């Protein structure tokens, strides 16, 4: 139970906007995003001494509604390298991100932020944003390689009201000259058999634990490149007992009081005098810490 709770707590996500979900049509589609290399990183001497490593952070964002959703994925820390003092630095990430979504809309983008990491006062690390880019996932050709330019500033700038208009965005945000992220985006149908184990709009790496997916057997340590399911087995729950403190009668009385007060305050359901308990059901489902593997089924009580 403690392991399940740890996975559950670490993978909480923000749902997409309702307007976006209503517009999206069709089944969920799986994708593979390869973040290869950052070119043209210019560092002064102070930054070279202070910043040991760099990481990428990727979040889904709805441009039309200015809303982040899902969960921010973070890469492993990587060191910057360069051939000589005159040339800019490079950071080789070579990390693969997997996700599936039904929100294949032009307004849905991936916001990629570059952060520098330096040792903190204790065992923690200080992270400082070094710029961000906007990766258009579903406008035009999805497959293939590309280069993503980075802007100065923080992704929080995308929440400013003046940036609703793309023309205003181009006028306000300034590009970091010469700094680009080499990436590759392509569909990943191999993820389809395990979609029921992974929530939509959640970006994960192949080395992350996905309960229900077998660990990799090759040297890549990537369990999602060719994912394999754990064998299924049957089980039975007997003599399930649910205890509600201090008693089920007191619990229901308190619940009804709260519901009726809320109904009276919001004027919803004014045609009904009061809310009453008409039936009791026990819902049992299977949850792997990330999502419902098998949704709850109700039984009369």
TrEMBL record:
One of its GO terms (biological process) is negative regulation of canonical Wnt signaling pathway. GO terms for cellular component: ciliary basal body; ciliary base; ciliary transition zone; non-motile cilium. Residues 1-12 have a biased composition (Basic and acidic residues). Residues 1-24 are annotated as: Disordered. InterPro entries: NPHP4. It comes from the Eukaryota. This is Nephronophthisis 4. It comes from Ameiurus melas (Black bullhead).
């Amino acid at each position: 139970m403690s392991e399940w709770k740890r996975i559950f707590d670490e993978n909480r996500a923000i749902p997409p906007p309702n307007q976006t979900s209503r517009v999206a049509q069709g089944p969920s589609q799986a994708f593979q995003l390869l973040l290869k290399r950052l070119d043209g990183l210019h560092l002064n001497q102070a930054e070279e001494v202070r910043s040991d490593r760099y990481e990428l952070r990727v979040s889904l964002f709805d441009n039309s509604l200015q809303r982040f959703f899902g969960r921010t994925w973070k890469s492993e820390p990587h060191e910057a390298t360069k051939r000589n003092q005159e040339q800019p630095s490079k950071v080789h990430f070579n990390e693969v991100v997997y996700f599936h979504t039904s929100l294949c809309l032009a307004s849905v983008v991936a916001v990629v932020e570059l952060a520098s990491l330096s040792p903190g006062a204790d065992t923690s690390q200080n992270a400082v944003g070094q710029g961000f880019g906007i990766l258009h996932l579903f406008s035009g050709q999805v497959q293939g390689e590309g280069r993503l330019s980075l802007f100065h500033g923080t992704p929080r700038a995308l929440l400013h009201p003046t940036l609703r208009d793309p023309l205003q965005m181009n006028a306000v945000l300034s590009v970091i000259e010469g700094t680009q992220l080499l990436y590759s985006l392509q569909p990943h149908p191999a993820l389809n058999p395990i979609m029921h184990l992974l929530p939509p709009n959640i970006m994960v790496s192949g080395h992350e634990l996905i309960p229900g997916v077998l660990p990799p057997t090759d040297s890549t340590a990537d369990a999602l490149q060719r994912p394999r399911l754990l064998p299924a087995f049957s089980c039975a729950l007997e003599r399930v007992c649910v205890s509600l403190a201090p008693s089920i009668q007191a619990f229901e009385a308190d619940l009804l009081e709260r519901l009726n007060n809320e109904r009276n305050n919001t004027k919803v359901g004014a045609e009904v005098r009061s809310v009453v308990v008409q039936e009791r059901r026990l819902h049992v489902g299977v949850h792997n810490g990330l999502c419902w593997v098998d949704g709850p089924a109700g039984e009369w009580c």
